[in-house]
Amino acid sequence: MDEGEPTGAILVAAGRGRRMGAVAKLFLPLGGRTVLERALHALTLPAEVHVAVVVAPHDQVAEAGRLAAAFPKVTAVVPGGEERQDSVAAGLDALPSVAWVVVHDAARPLLTPALVRRVLHAARPSGAATAAIAARDTVKVASAGVVRQTLDRDTIWLTQTPQAFRAALLREAHDRARRDGVRATDDAALVETMGVAVRIVEGEVLNLKVTTPEDLAIAEAVVRRWEGAEDRRTGIGYDVHRLMAGRRLVLGGVEIPYERGLAGHSDADVILHAIMDALLGAAGLPDIGQHFPSEDIRYRDADSRTLLREVVARLHQAGYTPAQVDVVILAEAPRLASYLPGMRRVIAEVLTIEERAVGLKATTTEGLGAIGRGEGIAAQAIVTVIRQR
Question: In which element (H, E) is residue 190 found?
Answer without folding.
Answer: helix 187-192
